[in-house]
Amino acid sequence: MDQTAAGGGARTDEATERTPVRFDTKIAVLLRDDLEPWQRLNVTAFVVSGLGTAVPDVIGEPYADADGTAYLAMFRQPVLVFEGTKETLSLAHARALSRSLATAVFTSDLFGTGNDRDNRAAVRAVRRDQLDLVGMAVHGPRNAVDKVLKGARMHP
Q: In whole angstroms, what is the distance from residue 147 CA to residue 112 CA?
């Protein structure tokens, strides 16, 4: 009798490979609900880029196609995108910071700058509780991120 028929070996490996992976952490983006579509995409791209630098273990292995062409590594887990009001975003920001979660922010001022130096200066010029947040990314334990996002809804 082969291992597959005996309930071992290949069948177990196949079942394991098909079992959904449940991560104990969560990556989430929260966008203000009054953004234009291009702004939503721009903000999302910017804020998630910061997470890989602060939390390197969120990045998986590099990709390669069947021809051996190499591609960059990406997040190893899904990124969930939410939306909420300006007030929801401010509350989420405060909650994320109070829980010491890895957080990236994008303020409305950044739409008017054209480079990284000016982006950082625009954020630095405003006190934390006065930031005009339009988006943020957060990473941390699932339950902590869920609490941070209280009041937000999944992006349509």
A: 32
